[in-house]
Amino acid sequence: MQTVTFDSAHIHPFVSPDEFTAVRQEAFTAQQSLFRATCRGNDFLGWLDLPLQADFAGIRQAAEELRACARYLVVIGIGGSYLGARAVIEALSSSFRHPDGEGMQVLFAGHHIGEDYYAELLDFLADKSFALCVISKSGTTTEPAIAFRLLKAYLEQQVGRDEARRRIVAVTDAARGALHDLAQQEGYRTFAIPDNVGGRFSLLTPVGLLPIAAAGFDAEALLAGAAAMRSLCTDCPDNPALRYAAARTALYRKGYSVEILANFHTKLHYVTEWWKQLFGESEGKEHRGIFPAGADFTTDLHSMGQYIQQGPRTLMETVISVSSPCRRMAIPHDPGNLDRLNFLAGMRVDEVNKMAELGTRIAHIDGGVPNMAFRLPELNAHTLGQLFYLFELACGISGCMLGVNPFDQPGVEDYKNNMFALLGKPGYEQASRDIKIKLENSGTL
Amino acid sequence: MQTVTFDSAHIHPFVSPDEFTAVRQEAFTAQQSLFRATCRGNDFLGWLDLPLQADFAGIRQAAEELRACARYLVVIGIGGSYLGARAVIEALSSSFRHPDGEGMQVLFAGHHIGEDYYAELLDFLADKSFALCVISKSGTTTEPAIAFRLLKAYLEQQVGRDEARRRIVAVTDAARGALHDLAQQEGYRTFAIPDNVGGRFSLLTPVGLLPIAAAGFDAEALLAGAAAMRSLCTDCPDNPALRYAAARTALYRKGYSVEILANFHTKLHYVTEWWKQLFGESEGKEHRGIFPAGADFTTDLHSMGQYIQQGPRTLMETVISVSSPCRRMAIPHDPGNLDRLNFLAGMRVDEVNKMAELGTRIAHIDGGVPNMAFRLPELNAHTLGQLFYLFELACGISGCMLGVNPFDQPGVEDYKNNMFALLGKPGYEQASRDIKIKLENSGTL
């Protein structure tokens, strides 16, 4: 098997080997508390065993039917109902969409409240065949609910209500909620989000698997990769998830308060976005937690590189790279050599990228930035499955070590409650009055 | 005139009004030191007067000729030779590319070393007419130099060397350097990057203006907007650039070490990326500087929202929003109302977005996150020009107050030097030997 590797050697000398050994012991205890369900938040541990699920036939069939009935699939979701699928699809897609290409193209909606975006999306879809995959546990989250209202009406207008029903799949609660009820009433095909899996840990449920399969990618290999990483990690004190959790925790305790996840492959941008939610939402509570930031290298070496090299020494850096590109392209020889690049002629582009990576790691370590590094042998569904499971387990361990409940997100409600009060949502009458008084006293808000 | 506004009222109570008054005095002195060229780095102040330039005819003509000869323009550049043009083009483009749409489509290259990306880019361009705009002061920066070698050879192969010469425009040093020399030799049309303007301040030179004009956007309005903001700010102690610089500096001195620039419009993502380079590269030195991070709201309220609401209280937040969308879309009524959204029926989508923004600002301030806010009346070239100039001036003032030279970037060379040593670049022989010894002693790197 091609295995994702993790290198923690370069957290030293910022953390001493003895300190690291002690923190790894703690991490082992934390990992056991997850698998034995004795940790905080232990009613949300379903994600630990998702790779062991065998029930993929329904997803495969739904994906095939979606692909047969439309050219575009609009996936409607936000947060954990958005980022995982997007991360995998962007990682495995071409950088350039061929408008006349084969297969199903995935578009995203419901991940913001952009009026211009929706007007432009409907324009784009006007002369195209499309289907909808709406993902929401409750069905009342504002962003996807607005998007689904707009797109459902547009689809029904385009193809009629009966055909629209066949083109809509809902991923939602198994037993209750607005979307569940609507799907029952309309007869949509539905898939269940398990009760014991939180949004940011739901990639390996239909939330991620269905859009990925519909996009034509190997969601079963993704599951198999996750299962392989689960085997590697189960109760083993020297697994990469545990070492990553221990390394970043040891650094955090030394005052390194910002972690930059820096990829060296252009298709990993959304893996970083997914990682930011996973760790930020799990750890950022009770005034604690590492601030998760992302960087795409070498692009951002020309924007954030100066700060990383010479700014405040509160940064740790975690690199993700891919050993072998999918494609082959060598740098041509040029007789004139005015750009002085002939010393690279005949070399593959990625060989230069690899020396940029190595040069960067050395420079940043020398500059006082502790370094960790993940390496994927290739960029495919199996290695991504490994990486996602590794990150989820590392996040669970990190959160337990931090002493918070890594599986809740109480702070996310605050802006929503204010928004509902401001919009006069039924049931928010008192909050509405309160916030209006607050605004009158606040000056410019 | 529609003017970009700035609200600093909600840095209080985190900073007291008296403290803020004192810091504004400092900021006024810093601004004067910029306009009087008595600050550190005063040989790189050309950007202050760029909006006053009148010489746009050459750019207009070159843009028209590029649009006449090809459907795609590949803009080759990195860092300051990339982010400004991309920020404006993405802000003003449709969210969805119509493959058969009118006008010139801009693609980007030279902003990383991605082998898969270049293979896919050449595949995409195989049956399309394209031109090149290569942007590099020296012509030897690795990323754009590799991209230009690949794309120049491909274009020459596709249309012949003579036609390729007509389709290539170089933006480079006026008098020397590899790209200057090559452009002279081949007879490319060239535009000069002024000597006294650093990369991250070069948006209003041909570096930004030419790609923006070629994409069909109003680069003259961008300049006019910047000129308007310059007038507003010149030596005035209560201008928005000065107030923004003073507010963030006062907060930094209180221990707020991370600034999140959070936009509430989907097209502003790359404005944030540009801002991250501007501030991060200007301030992040001598172990000082605010860490610049970006967020796209409401999307990232469902990923980073928890951390912002309840994580360590070291964050300040700066919001950018747009008063009026370009398009109109109302939320439809639904007789069933299973999603319980009928309380929003008839409302414009953006009205909900605005209440999300207000609700978020209140929630974050209540949670202990000082808030600043920019508001663009509309999203167009003129308001963007105002915003970019405002940010540049605020960055110069902030850097002066921080006590660093805001106009150099010495740390960016470190990874490049290591990379050249590792690749065996001529002239790096001793460094090559040194880094190999270092690697032998380093273990796993």
Question: Your description of this structure?
Answer:
The structure is a homodimer of 445-residue chains. Helix content of chain A is 47%, strand content 13%. In chain A, the strands form two sheets. A five-stranded mixed sheet of chain A has the order 1-10-9-7-8, with helices on both faces. A five-stranded parallel sheet of chain A has the order 3-2-4-5-6, sandwiched between helices. Chain A starts with a strand and ends with a helix. The first copy, chain A, contains 16 helices and ten strands. The first copy, chain A, has 445 residues and is of the alpha/beta class. The model of chain A has no long low-confidence stretch (mean pLDDT 96). In chain A, α1 (17-35) crosses α10 and α11 (269-283) runs parallel beside α14. The longest helix of chain A is centred in the C-terminal third of the chain and has 22 residues, at 381-402. The interface between A and B is large, with 140 and 141 residues.
Rg over alpha carbons of chain A: 23 Å
Taking pLDDT < 50 over at least 5 consecutive residues as the criterion, the unreliable ranges of chain A are none
First-residue to last-residue Cα separation of chain A: 56 Å
Task: Name the beta content range of chain A.
Answer: 5-15%
Proportion of helical residues of chain A: 40-55%
> Overall pLDDT of chain A, averaged?
96
Number of strands of chain A: 10
Largest sheet, strands/sense/barrel of chain A: 5 strands, mixed
Structural class of chain A: alpha/beta
Q: Largest protein interface?
A: A-B, 140 and 141 residues
Helices and strands of chain A, in N-to-C order? EHHEHEHEHHEHEHHHEHEHEHEHHH
Oligomer: homodimer
